[in-house]
Amino acid sequence: MSYLTVEDLQVSYGPVQALRGVSLKVDEGSIVAIIGANGAGKTTLLNTLSGIVKPKSGVVRFRGQPLPARACHIVREGLAHVPEGRKIFPGFSIEENLLAGAYIVADKRLVEQRRDAMYARFPILAQRIGQQAGTLSGGEQQMLAIARGLMSDPGLLLLDEPSLGLAPLVVKAVFELIREIRDSQGKTILLVEQNAKKALALCDYAYVLENGAIVLEGKGHDLLNNPAIRKAYLGSDEA
After folding, report:
1. pTM for the full model?
2. Which of 35, 42, 154, 186 pairs as cysteine with 192 (C-beta 3.0–4.6 A)?
3. What class has domain 1-78+154-239?
4. Distance separating alpha carbons of residues 71 and 83, to the nearest angstrom
């Protein structure tokens, strides 16, 4: 049984159909990438999985059970979403952003343990606990966004464009972090990413989304060497 199963997901914004019968599977402990051009429906897919967008039809199962409809209940089931553009709370301190990520956790001691674990994993954040998040660099904000997502201790982490707008060296660090989160913590990761070259090199399996529909799927390294994929998505990707 797959950890996450999406079957015939249909999503519309008024008369515009954003997802057209999307079906995919994510195995536990894997990194699965979704690649595609701008407007393909990648962010809509993650927003639907996390309950931000309501589907017109289709079924999403996590650990064999249908996902609840409300976003807060989805988080309780073990999904956490790190959105495109990071969406940190810029006027909050680093500490306050992290605590916001654990809003579903009632045990204060457990929250403190997770917070301390994030500071150990991201020492740059530990050095700036009281600093307003909006004053951080783009890379530091992305680290904070990922740390905030991990505060709920999710089984499945949804990452939307984590390399967006970052310098090449920071992009490399972010992708190393994604691999480390999977390898050291056993997290399952669904990654939406425009940097197709790095995403395919990192992931176990990938889906190509075009105009709201899955048009190709396969192991990451196979798609990385697929001539059609290289021509469509990797020709100018040198990062």
Report:
1. 0.92
2. 42
3. alpha beta
4. 13
